[in-house]
Amino acid sequence: MQDLSVLILGSGPNVLEAREWTEHPFDKIVAINNAWAVREDWDDLIYPFDFPDDRRPNALQSHQRFVTQEDFVPVQNEFGGFLYAGGTMAFTAGYWVLGHYKPAHIAFLGCDMHYPKQSQTHFYGTGEADPLRDDVSLRSLEAKANRFYVHAMAEGCAVTNLSSDPSRLTFPRFVLGRDLPEALKIDARKTQSARKREVELNYFTPSGKYWEEIHRFDPQEIALLDQLWLQAVSA
After folding, report:
1. DSSP3 helix / strand / coil % (the chain, rounded to 5)
2. Residues 22-80: pLDDT tens digits?
């Protein structure tokens, strides 16, 4: 399935751009939480255990399915677990797509995790800025984005961001109808150091519920690890 191209839709205001597309190059569309309402042709709806029932679609088409913690936790664990990956659904969806579909390209839209105080934060209005909550796994969204980028490239998968707005994602920007942008530079030494440090720290929680073991994690060590991932990727 290496030739697959997958689009991940989040809930940022610019995700509505996808509603206007009459054609697109993606083989699969994965919607996060409420983003299933953007287009009718999505394939997978991925959401956490606390996503309310009344926000889910009432019926599914034959090609559509729900992706829950039973599906994404094992895949996330293959890539080191939630503490290292960043415990928010944009990254969870990314790793699940990477592990499940093994695609050649993953594009994100509506996943900028940028929340201006005086404008709409989500395509459906104002929502809770989950990635900005006080969480030990989300101290640096840019570091977590770099980590995902490195893991994806190691799997032979290009990663891009379709947004043209301010973004916490560090991926190359992509415009539909154009060639994929040039890949970012990955520092092999910094990457090796970051991977080695993850193993040494052993901040792994098989259940995915890292918040139940918060006493195990040293914020200073996580900050140092984030610095390694921040230095591992450059334009």
Report:
1. 40, 15, 45
2. 999 999 999 999 999 999 999 999 999 999 999 999 999 999 999 999 999 999 999 99
Q: Which residues of 103-138 are buried (b: 16+ CB within 10 A; e: fewer)?
A: bbbbbbbbbbbbbeeeeebbbbeeeeebbeeebbbb
Q: 67: helix, coil or strand?
A: strand
As a whole number of angstroms, the distance between CA 108 and CA 45 comes to: 14
Q: Which amino acid is at 32?
A: I
Spatial distance between the Cα atoms of 59 and 64, rounded to a whole number of angstroms: 9
- pTM value? 0.92
To 10 degrees, what angle do helices 219-232 and 141-154 make? 50
Domains annotated on the chain, with CATH:
5-234 (3.90.1480)
Query: Where residue 123 falls among pLDDT bands split at 50, 70, 90?
Result: very low
At 125 the three-state DSSP class reads: strand
